[in-house]
């Protein structure tokens, strides 16, 4: 069963006749999977890409190798780039990109420890949101917390879209 924040978010996206797509690195498709479990999934979910490896980000999403090398695959800049690539591939109203560090061995630093997650949400022609947060816990807990946060952030963003 999908988390309550994803269920609420899906209903709101459907109510607004919007379509969503995902580019996921650290969450490895789990976010799209959560949306697929909602009763509105057929109305809102266009698809997703798991781009865990840097070469997948480059080859499928067209992210420049220089950007990945300069900023690291798990960075705000690369997360923005993967979210920005989705509308061309899916024709979506909402594009969500997620990267981050759920385990040691990536690009973690003192300023970017394990648990750091980057979320970028792009609603072409209307709104854009960048979010960075450090979550505590084991990899599965970090991913679950990230998914709940995405649901909350998306809900806020779609509500603002409604108001405009």
Describe this structure in words.
The chain is of the alpha/beta class and 164 residues long. The protein has a single domain, classed as Maf protein (Alpha-Beta Complex). Helix content is 46%, strand content 21%. The protein has seven helices and five strands; from the N terminus they run αβααβαααβββα. A five-stranded mixed sheet has the order 2-1-3-4-5, with helices on both faces. The mean pLDDT is 94.
Key structural traits:
Maf protein; 164 residues; alpha/beta; single chain
How are the SSEs ordered, and which strands pair?
Layout (H helix, E strand, L loop, with lengths): L3 H12 L4 E5 L5 H7 L4 H4 E6 L3 H6 L5 H7 L4 H15 L3 E7 L15 E8 L3 E8 L4 H25 L1
Parallel strand pairs: 1-2, 1-3
Antiparallel strand pairs: 3-4, 4-5
Characterize the largest beta sheet: strand count, sense, and whether it forms a barrel.
5 strands, mixed
Span from first to last CA? Answer: 32 Å
Percent helix, as a range, is: 40-55%
Q: What order do the strands of the largest sheet run in, or round the barrel if closed?
A: 2-1-3-4-5
Please summarize what this structure is:
With 164 residues, the chain is an alpha/beta fold. It contains seven helices and five strands; from the N terminus they run αβααβαααβββα. Strands 2-1-3-4-5 form a five-stranded mixed beta sheet, with helices on both faces.
